[in-house]
Amino acid sequence: MSGGTTLENANPVIFQRSGERLLADTDADEDVHDPIDDREIFDLIRSINDPEHPLSLEELNVLEQVRVKVNDAESSVDVQFTPTIPHCSMATLIGLSIKVKLLRSLPERFKVR
């Protein structure tokens, strides 16, 4: 029970987190053009907490790097996520959390879907 309500998925399956991104020397150099890629976007959103659990979206397998697509040249980011249960009432909140995080983190030129 959480706040007097029953959790929709009280016992979710927990997945192992992926390793940290390996950085190249040029990643820290502000003078080198470094296009934004799928992994960079995934790293921005993977630690967002699920609304019902003290677990990240990555740990619940709601987010996977293979479902993040970036086209830096066209300034677009597409993220697909999979709620832990069908007809999840938190799906809208999860999508909004992802979108807000990306809109706050990316240059304004990006369109986030």
Automatic annotation (TrEMBL):
Entry's Gene Ontology cellular component terms: cytosolic [4Fe-4S] assembly targeting complex
InterPro entries from the UniProt entry: FSCA_dom_sf, MIP18, MIP18-like
Keyword check for Signal: no
Gene3D superfamilies linked: Fe-S cluster assembly (FSCA) (3.30.300.130)
Limits of the MIP18 family-like domain: 39-112
Keyword Cell inner membrane: no
Highest taxon of source: Eukaryota
One Gene Ontology term from the biological process aspect of the record: protein maturation
One Pfam family matching this protein: FeS_assembly_P
Keywords of the record: Chromosome partition
Similarity-based family: Belongs to the MIP18 family.
Protein role: Component of the cytosolic iron-sulfur protein assembly (CIA) complex, a multiprotein complex that mediates the incorporation of iron-sulfur cluster into extramitochondrial Fe/S proteins. As a CIA complex component and in collaboration with CIAO1 and MMS19, binds to and facilitates the assembly of most cytosolic-nuclear Fe/S proteins. As part of the mitotic spindle-associated MMXD complex it plays a role in chromosome segregation, probably by facilitating iron-sulfur cluster assembly into ERCC2/XPD.
Subunit structure comment from the entry: Component of the CIA complex. Component of the MMXD complex, which includes CIAO1, ERCC2, CIAO2B, MMS19 and SLC25A5. Interacts with CIAO1, ERCC2 and MMS19; the interactions are direct. Interacts with KIF4A; the interaction facilitates the transfer of Fe-S clusters to KIF4A to ensure proper localization of KIF4A to the mitotic machinery. Interacts with CCDC117; the interaction is direct.
Protein name in UniProt: Cytosolic iron-sulfur assembly component 2B
Taxonomic path: Eukaryota, Metazoa, Chordata, Craniata, Vertebrata
